[in-house]
Automatic annotation (TrEMBL):
GO terms for molecular function: DNA binding; DNA-binding transcription factor activity. PANTHER family: TRANSCRIPTIONAL REGULATOR, MARR, TRANSCRIPTIONAL REPRESSOR OF EMRAB OPERON. The keyword Transcription applies. Residues 1-143 form the HTH marR-type domain. This is Winged helix-turn-helix transcriptional regulator. Pfam families: MarR (PF01047). InterPro entries: HTH_MarR-typ, WH-like_DNA-bd_sf, WH_DNA-bd_sf. Keywords: DNA-binding, Transcription, Transcription regulation.
Amino acid sequence: MDQHGEALNRFLVEVFNEILKTEENALAKAYKDLSLRELHLIEEVCRAADEGRDNRATAIAAAQRVTAGTLTTAVSLLERKGYLERRRDERDKRVVRILPTARAREADARHARFHEEMVADILETLTEEETVIFVRALGSVSAFFRAKHKETM
């Protein structure tokens, strides 16, 4: 690996870890009972509900890239904590929907504000041209990880 490759590798590892730690610390003050993974599950359930997407367990599990069993365990725990609820579909009683509670909506809103602040702070330092290049480069990083994920499935 050349000098640029080493610098990029170090950057990706450090930034990824720093984002997760900072995000977790920022939210831990207000939501001590939630892990970052749980918060991202809440975020997914909120988006599915808001966007009219499939909010059955199988769809949520696929979106989160976890097994159905892992999702069931997480949803059960978040139900006990008062963040999610399971509700039978009114038209097809065999279908169970996963829905956010008001408490989940509050946590999701706080989480969204953290992300908005992060993005605004980064964009504030970049020119329009740099922003276009940065977004394109991050798209390549994202495509790499999506492809690697598919290989492991």
